[in-house]
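Q: Convert this sequence to structure tokens.
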Amino acid sequence: MLSSRVFIRQQFTRLTPDEVLEAIPLFHPPWADADPEDITFADSHATHGNFRA
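A:
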């Protein structure tokens, strides 16, 4: 039923490390002043480029 309602299928890929460093400070205010190394650490140990994780 869902496929009959979806006009265009969207495929999502994981963010690259550079995209993570750019997006996370803009999307999450608590991370805005975080050290980029902390963001990279969190991404590599928990989210692996998955924006919703």
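The chain has three helices and no strands.
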